[in-house]
Every structure is written in structure tokens, then in C-alpha cells.
Design a protein that fits this description.
single chain; about 120 residues; mainly beta; seven-stranded mixed β-sheet; four-stranded antiparallel β-sheet
Length: about 120
């Protein structure tokens, strides 16, 4: 079974940048489309960005479009989320997950979520 470990979160000032990584174990990583999700305290989990298995297509939520970039390196079994021009409302726990890629209608595969990585943006 694929195991996912997120890293790269931290505390950053508004306008700053962070690069999140999601490292996968196993040999099937390259067959899955992948997505980044975030959840703030008391709020519903939000789909932030998605990428196809080959990396040929991407999707971004309107709230992050133009600021975030999702990418992947299948040789390293890793998916990334470059986060620029961060805002306090980006504060959340960010998690990665295999998805059925359908643009805005993408859905996570399975119900198991990893630890995630905390992103805190101060003003």
C-alpha cells in the first residue's frame, strides 16, 4: 500500500513562500493522479490543487490560482506544492492524497489521511 508523508510546512509572514513536499513509498505512485487538500480548524476540508499521473494537466482552486503551483517528480515518488504570496487565510493543515482527476470535480481515493503539514501565515 502507498504511504504518504507531507513536509515543508512552517510559520511564514504574509507575502512569503513555502514549498510543500509529499513523499510516497511503493512502486505505484506514477499511476495515480495526486491532489493537495487543506483544512483549517472548524472548517471543511478543501481541495486546493490536482495533477494528473503524468503531470500533463493541473487544476487549482480559485482561491489559490496564480499563487500556488503543483508539480511532481515520479522518479522521486514526490509531489510538490509551491506556495507564493501567502495570505493569512491560507493557514491550515495541508495533506496530499491520490485522486480521481476531474478538474474541479476531482475526488480523493480512499478515506485514510496522513499526518499532514501545518502552514501558518502571520499578518
Amino acid at each position: 500500500q502507498v504511504q504518504l508523508v507531507e513536509s515543508g510546512g512552517g510559520l511564514v509572514q504574509a507575502g512569503g513562500a513555502l514549498r510543500l513536499s509529499c513523499a510516497a513509498s511503493g512502486s505505484t505512485f506514477s499511476t495515480f493522479a495526486m491532489g493537495w487538500f487543506r483544512q483549517a480548524p472548524g472548517k471543511e476540508r478543501e481541495f486546493v490543487a490536482g495533477i494528473t499521473s503524468s503531470g500533463s494537466r493541473t487544476y487549482y482552486a480559485d482561491s489559490v490560482k496564480g499563487r500556488f503551483t503543483i508539480s511532481r517528480d515520479n522518479a522521486k515518488n514526490t509531489v510538490y506544492l509551491q506556495m507564493n504570496s501567502l495570505k493569512p487565510e491560507d493557514t491550515a493543515v495541508y495533506s496530499c492524497k491520490p485522486i480521481y482527476y476531474s478538474g474541479s470535480y476531482s475526488m480523493p481515493i480512499g478515506d485514510n489521511w496522513g499526518q499532514g503539514t501545518q502552514v501558518t501565515v502571520s499578518s
